[in-house]
Design brief:
Elements: H1 5-21, H2 36-45, E1 52-56, E2 64-69, E3 79-84, E4 104-106, E5 112-115, H3 123-138, E6 147-152, H4 163-169, H5 171-174, E7 178-181, E8 186-190, E9 193-202, E10 204-213, E11 217-218, H6 228-241, H7 250-258, H8 263-269, H9 275-281, H10 284-293, E12 297-305, E13 311-312, E14 315-324, H11 330-341, E15 349-356, H12 369-381, E16 386-392, H13 398-402, E17 408-410, H14 420-426, E18 433-435, H15 436-453
Helix pairs in contact: 1-3, 1-15, 3-15, 12-15
The protein binds zinc ion (ZN).
């Protein structure tokens, strides 16, 4: 006999609170993260229900856990629920409540919310996936395919000590045919109906380090000096002024429609001649998201130069975060970068590739049984909803699976209390929190997807 959804929601709330309090903060250094704390907590959740699990610890304290509930038919497709257990750092001064308190607080409008770092990225999903997985195992329900629960470390620093390591070197442990992970399920209701966005793809990182050279000289005589920092500044300026023709494709159109901005704004955003002006008129959060969803982006984020305040630097190092669209390549990034640098400065610049996303697709087709199961399951909660594929601008662990040809979707299901703009602002932002209704919808979603996928 299965537990009621209200009981399961309560389990998700409590598990999420504990995961937040474990403070698995990933600073990008090998000794941070301490995901061991959440891995141990999750392992304890499986105690005594008779399911096998494996812990992989590529570096001290950086554990990931894989639990596999075997299906009855070795040929049936398997599904992996993947949630990361780490979170990003906080600036506590910006918070109204303790970022690691995991408190359940009732908002002014009566909505109960769980507060804390990780409440939307993505301990809400990691905890609800565990509750759904455990409920399935505990109830004795058997599906044809394997159901895998994967609590993974180090997502917030690129996955070298988490998904990347495990996909590259422990594929037998994690192998699966489908993946559900962060993030999706933003729900927008307008006069035209309800739209729910699920993530089918993401942009690809093409980070670059530019070594810019000049001639050293005395800082008292800058006239006609060959100053590497000045060249770096020119490149930065050119980068911010560089224009790329936006790709206003079907996915972009769906995204614009899903935001419910009104017909007039939609028309402008989908018109190549008006899109720039339309973006300029929107709030920054929405505008920056839409901007990045229709073009390659360049963000110059770090520069170092010089040794001494009285010496003209002969070297500057500029680091640029470039993200290409799923349809674009690393070579496309370099081609645009060279155009930005310009003929005059190119001889002084050496371009180094810092970090490339894996080759291969960064977009999953919706022509799969899992997508149908996901759509049907969303419609159990929102009967008239249109479920549309969408893209995220950042990177997730899904990319390691997509690169291996495994369809991976960013899922979840939010109440309509969380708008697109609000959701975005909580990601890595202050006052991160999730309403209990969204935790309920998401817990139920995983259970329904399993029922539908293997029906
Ligand atoms: Zn995340």
């Amino acid at each position: 006999m299965g537990k009621s959804i209200d009981v399961l929601t309560q389990e998700t709330v409590e598990l999420l609170q504990q995961m937040i309090r474990n403070q698995c903060v990933n600073h990008g250094t090998p000794e941070s993260g301490n995901e061991d704390r959440n891995a141990r907590l999750l392992r304890d959740e499986l105690e005594g229900i008779g399911v096998d699990f494996e812990v992989i610890e590529p570096a001290p304290g950086r554990s990931s856990m894989i639990a596999r509930y075997e299906g009855t038919d070795p040929n049936a497709p398997s599904l992996c629920l993947m949630g990361h257990t780490d979170v990003v750092p906080v600036s506590p001064d910006g918070w109204m409540h303790d970022p690691f308190g995991g408190e359940l607080i009732t908002a002014d409008d009566g909505t109960p919310e769980v507060w804390g770092r990780g409440a939307v990225d993505m301990l809400n999903l990691t905890s609800s996936m565990m509750v759904a997985f455990r409920e399935i195992v505990r109830s004795g329900k058997r599906y044809p395919g394997d159901l895998i629960y994967f609590a993974v470390a180090d997502e917030e620093a690129g996955g070298a000590l988490g998904a990347k390591e495990i996909v590259d070197n422990h594929w037998d442990a994690i192998k699966c045919d489908y993946v559900l992970t962060e993030n999706g399920g933003i729900t927008t209701s307008t006069a035209d109906g309800t739209t729910v966005m699920m993530t089918t793809g993401e942009k690809k990182g093409a980070f670059r380090h530019l070594e810019i050279s000049g001639e050293p000289g005395h800082g008292s005589r800058p006239y006609r000096s060959d100053n590497a920092l000045v060249k770096a500044a020119k490149i930065v300026t050119r980068m911010t002024e560089y224009e790329i023709a936006p790709k206003l494709d079907d996915m972009f159109r769906e995204r614009v429609r899903a935001l419910g901005l009104g017909a007039e704004m939609e028309d402008k955003l989908l018109d190549p001649d008006q899109v720039d002006a339309a973006l300029a008129s929107l709030p920054r959060g929405t505008a920056s998201n839409l901007h990045s969803c229709c073009q390659m982006s360049f963000s110059p984020n770090m520069v170092n130069s010089g040794e001494k305040a009285n010496t003209v630097p002969d070297r500057a190092d500029l680091y640029v975060d470039i993200r290409v669209l799923p349809s674009e390549t690393q070579d496309d990034a370099d081609r645009h970068l060279r155009a930005i640098i310009g003929e005059d400065l190119l001889p002084s610049v050496k371009i180094n590739r810092l970090f490339d996303s894996p080759d291969g697709p960064s977009m999953s087709s919706t022509d799969t049984p899992l997508w149908s199961a996901l759509t049907d399951s969303v419609q159990m909660a929102y009967p008239t909803a249109r479920v549309v594929p969408s893209m995220v601008t950042g990177g997730t662990d899904a990319r390691f699976f997509r690169a291996k040809g495994v369809p991976a979707y960013g899922a979840g299901l939010l109440s309509n209390k969380v708008s697109f703009a609000e959701f975005g602002s909580r990601f890595h932002g202050h006052n991160e929190r999730i309403d209990v209704e969204s935790l309920k919808l998401t817990t139920e979603l995983w259970l329904n997807v399993c029922n539908r996928l293997w029906a």
